Amino acid sequence: MEFRTKVEIGKAGFQIGACEEVLLVGSCFAGEMGQRFKDNGYPTMVNPYGTMYNPASILHTLGRLIDEGRRLPRVVFLTLGTNHVYRLKETGEIVDNCEKRPSALFQEEELTIDECTEYLNKAVELLRAHQPKVQIVMTVSPIRYRKYGYHESQLSKATLLFAIEQLIYQTSGIRHLHYFPVYEILMDELRDYRFYAADMLHPSEQAVEYIWEQLVTWCFSHEAKMFMDEWRPIREALQHRPFHPESEEYQQFLEKTQERLTAFRKKYPAFSCD
Hints:
This protein has helices at 28-39, 55-67, 113-130, 150-170, 182-189, 205-219, 222-239, 248-267; strands at residues 22-26, 44-46, 75-80, 84-88, 94-95, 106-110, 135-140, 177-179. The radius of gyration is 21 Å and the shape is globular. The longest helix has 21 residues, at 150-170. The chain is built from eight helices and eight strands; from the N terminus they run βαβαββββαβαβαααα. Strand 7 (135-140), helix 4 and strand 8 (177-179) form a beta-alpha-beta unit. It is of the alpha/beta class.
């Protein structure tokens, strides 16, 4: 007897390699996933100019990265949070951050499905122009926006889901664009408040970890999984906090851990450990 609906994710049309550089841009859920990549030893860039919630702001981030001459990795995650944008009345431009300026200076708008699709398509074209081998994973953040009202928040998520589906359909001949069902996993598979944080809006640590495990199953190569399995005990040893740090036994433990870390770095030159 089944007591939950399982979201079938299958396998992605690409694989993330061992210690491969990744870029994550989007809502605060991009930060959650980005931290998992960092914890597992991946060289990771997350929202270099701050959290971006809507398709227009995500496009702005990618454009700015390219304008500054940053090298783009092969694997890019775009995590959409909302279709709501804020336009500066004086110039008509969509801003990425209101910078605590008076709300009277801005006009809030909701992007349509077609507008969201257009911004996302421009983001995809920009990435492909500067990194022809790019693999782009789009997700919709499961975090609800209470300030819009729960019904309006659902409408916003639906707009984003339709836009992604429309974009994937329009670019079906090019196998560079993928959708990972973060939103569906939390809403349909983990639909219980025990999988939410104390605010009842953000996913709990357990839910985020489960989504991470599903992502690993979906698109990580065998070599990538072996890399993480090798790194995990070294990371745990480095994080160990002894009761008697001055003891000879702990000093020997530290020396062995450093030897293991040195050997690991030699095996994986691209390894990143903050």
